[in-house]
């Protein structure tokens, strides 16, 4: 079975193999043999984007029309209108599935949006008393069902986004069972969709937000939460495996750095009863973490450089905001941001040039 690559990667592979053929490194037959293991998949399709945007606009326009006259519509007619509309979009999606698959999926996306809106509108009409997070949970289940029905990765990603909103709107409520069940479904979905990088990224972010929710629910201090995420982030960064390891590294480093960023503030350290002067701990910690980030630069990673720039700007704002005139403060800050951006761009070019030299 051939491995599908998106249009960009497939053409990049073909160009690289042709260059190696021109240099005499491989023969024409070897190039063709290598390409037999790959095939060009569907890239970003303009028609698909166009029909998707069009269908979504139609759906949103209909919802605005209904919402604008919501108070004037009898309750039973409200439910009838919403059910019929969802049914029409889903029916149209089913009818056009074979002849116009892109249009079919766009219609299904619209049906999923109308379904979510219908939950909130019906709850309002009949005063069902559903909490906002409960409405989002029902919406997630519906989107997951549609994603499974049509085996669509975009709907699955949309469910991830709704799940993030669900978690953020439930920080003070007990939703462990629902959240864990959703995470199980999302991890199974990663397996089903063959561990696409975007899905791995989304599910890992969702998992970390769930951990944050758990710590918040049980009133764990910010100090302990920060250290937990630093440890988890380090484990994700350093534990090597073959499952989208670069995604794990990136998310691990970013999550650990966000946690470390909170520990640069002295009041987080002062949450501990035995610490009176948090600055005695926050400043040495910041220096050590910056040294750690600089060591990562030797591995030709750009992300640590971006994080270093953010840390520098944090101390600039914290230290000089009250001392400099506002105009001078923002001018110097702007110059610093431009300088950091310039250095990051230059650093990336150095990495690319080094990689090209190694290939040659």
Features:
single chain; 360 residues; mainly alpha; two-stranded parallel sheet
Give a verbal description of the structure.
The protein is an all-alpha fold and 360 residues long. The protein is built from 15 helices and two strands. The chain has a two-stranded parallel sheet. α8 packs antiparallel against α9 (197-217), α13 runs antiparallel to α14 (303-320) and α14 (303-320) packs antiparallel against α15 (326-359). The two termini are 32 Å apart. The relative contact order is 0.04. The model has no long low-confidence stretch (mean pLDDT 84).
Structure summarized in a few sentences:
The chain is mainly alpha-helical. The chain has helices spanning 7-22, 28-35, 46-68, 75-95, 101-126, 132-150, 153-168, 176-192, 197-217, 222-238, 245-262, 266-269, 279-297, 303-320, 326-359, and strands at 3-5, 38-40.
Ends distance = 32 Å
Q: Detail the poorly predicted runs.
A: none
What percentage of amino acids are in beta strands? under 5%
Strand order of the largest sheet: 1-2
Largest sheet: 2 strands, parallel
């Amino acid at each position: 079975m051939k491995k599908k690559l998106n249009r960009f990667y497939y053409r990049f592979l073909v160009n690289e193999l042709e260059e190696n053929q021109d240099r005499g490194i491989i023969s024409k037959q070897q190039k063709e043999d290598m390409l037999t293991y790959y095939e060009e998949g569907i890239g970003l399709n303009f028609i698909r984007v166009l029909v998707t945007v069009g269908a979504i606009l139609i759906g949103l326009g209909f919802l605005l029309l209904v919402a604008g006259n919501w108070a004037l519509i009898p309750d039973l007619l409200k439910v009838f209108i919403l059910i019929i509309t969802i049914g029409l979009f889903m029916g149209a999606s089913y009818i056009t599935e074979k002849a116009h698959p892109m249009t079919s999926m766009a219609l299904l996306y619209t049906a999923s949006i109308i379904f979510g809106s219908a939950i909130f509108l019906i709850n309002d009409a009949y005063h069902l008393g559903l909490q906002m997070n409960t409405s989002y949970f029902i919406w997630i289940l519906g989107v997951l069902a549609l994603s499974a029905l049509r085996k669509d990765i975009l709907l699955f990603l949309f469910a991830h986004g709704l799940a993030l909103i669900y978690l953020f709107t439930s920080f003070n409520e007990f939703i462990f069972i629902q959240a864990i069940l959703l995470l199980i479904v999302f991890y199974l979905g990663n397996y089903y969709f063959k561990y696409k990088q975007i899905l791995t990224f989304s599910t890992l972010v969702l998992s970390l937000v769930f951990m944050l929710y758990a710590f918040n629910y049980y009133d764990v201090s910010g100090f302990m939460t920060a250290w937990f995420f630093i440890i988890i982030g380090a484990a994700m960064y350093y534990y090597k495996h073959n499952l989208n390891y670069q995604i794990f590294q990136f998310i691990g480093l970013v999550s650990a750095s966000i946690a470390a960023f909170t520990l640069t503030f002295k009041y987080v350290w002062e949450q501990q009863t035995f610490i009176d002067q948090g600055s005695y701990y926050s400043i040495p910690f910041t220096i050590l973490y910056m040294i750690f980030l600089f060591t990562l630069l030797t591995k030709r990673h750009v992300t640590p450089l971006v994080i270093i720039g953010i840390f520098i700007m944090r101390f600039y704002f914290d230290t000089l905001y009250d001392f400099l005139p506002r105009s001078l403060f923002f001018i110097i800050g702007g110059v610093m941001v431009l300088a950091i951006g310039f250095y990051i761009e230059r650093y990336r070019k150095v990495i690319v040039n080094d990689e090209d030299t190694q290939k040659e």
